[in-house]
Predict the structure.
Amino acid sequence: METKTCKKCGLDKPLGEFAVGRRFADGLQPWCRTCFQSYAHARRQDPETAAKERAYHQDYYQRKQATGEYGLNQRKSRLKRQYGISLNEYINLLVAQGQKCAICGSTSPQREGADSFDVDHDHATGKVRGLLCKDCNLMVGNAHDNPTTLRKAADYLERPI
C-alpha cells in the first residue's frame, strides 16, 4: 500500500487519507484529511477570520453579479452539466428556431424574470430536442413526453361540445 507523509502532522498515511489536489505534483493535497479538517474547523471558529472570509465572498459575488459574469458562468455550467451543450450551441439552436418556442412560436419565455427558453430534451436518451417556452415545456413534461397523450389531448380539444 502506497503512503504519503502529511506536511502538517508528519505521519505516513495511506494515499486515501489525502484529498485530490490537482495543482500539486502528485495530484494530492499536502495535508491529510484529518489535519485539514482540524485546520478548517479552527478557522471557522475564529470570529475574526470567519467575518473576513464572509466579507470576501460577499464582495466577490457582488462584483461577479454586477458584471453579469456570475449568472453567465452559472448558465454555461448548467447547460453543459444538465444537457451537454455549450452556450454557443444553445444560441445556435435559438437562432435556428427563429428565436421562438419550437411548439407555439412564442417569442417570449413566458416566465417572470426569465430571459431564456427552456431546453427540451428526451429524458430517455438525454438528447436535446429544442427550446420551449415555459408553458409548452410544462405541457410536454406533464404528458411525460408521451406523444399519444398529447394527440388525445388535441382530439379532446377539437371535439364538438
The radius of gyration is 25 Å. The chain has a mean pLDDT of 91.
